[in-house]
Amino acid sequence: MEKNASDWIEKLGLLKHPEGGYFKEVYRSDETIPGSALPHRFKGNRCYSTSIYFLLESEDFSAFHRIQSEEIWHFYKGSALTLYVIDENGVLSLKHLGEIIDDKTEFQIVIPRNTWFAAKVDMNNSYALVGCTVAPGFDFSDFELADCSELCNLFPQHKLTIHKFTK
């Protein structure tokens, strides 16, 4: 029997995430990189790497946010999803993550550091279960949830998309 979103949320012990969706950290390296060895954008030590399960239901979205590290999204189950990525030059690109690989959909997508991004499940009444790996490891002090007005001021050409994917 095929699992639904609620089954995965319960089975994996997922919790609500501030950006939308549900998550659970499944790996945090036990070794750390000293803050003095990291670029100045990091305020303190970071572990080598972290990873989470992340589940997004079609009725929800992952709001625009950015982190100071690279993040790799890995597809596991459910429907494909679209990542809306605004780079530092204001270029908006749509990246597709899913199980059917073709000229536009991939199993893994890398989000560059300091890049604004949001996500939405492609199919109605569905979900996407993915993994996210961050290196240097994720720390909530590196997480910035977008303010709609501020992001629209930075990238007015993407105002409609920003309004759609901010909370």
Write the topology of this structure.
Blueprint: H1 5-12, E1 15-16, E2 22-28, E3 32-33, E4 46-47, E5 50-57, E6 62-66, E7 70-78, E8 81-86, E9 92-97, E10 105-106, E11 108-111, E12 116-121, E13 127-135, E14 144-145, H2 148-154, H3 159-164
Parallel strand pairs: 9-10
Antiparallel strand pairs: 1-2, 2-5, 3-4, 5-13, 6-12, 6-14, 7-11, 7-13, 8-9, 8-12
Describe this structure in words.
The chain is mainly beta and 167 residues long. The chain has one domain (5-164): Jelly Rolls (Sandwich), CATH 2.60.120. Helix content is 13%, strand content 42%. The protein contains three helices and 14 strands. The chain has helices spanning 5-12, 148-154, 159-164; strands at 15-16, 22-28, 32-33, 46-47, 50-57, 62-66, 70-78, 81-86, 92-97, 105-106, 108-111, 116-121, 127-135, 144-145. A six-stranded antiparallel β-sheet has the order 1-2-5-13-7-11, with helices on one face. The chain has a six-stranded mixed β-sheet with strand order 10-9-8-12-6-14, with no helix packed on it. 34% of the residues are buried. The model has no long low-confidence stretch (mean pLDDT 96).
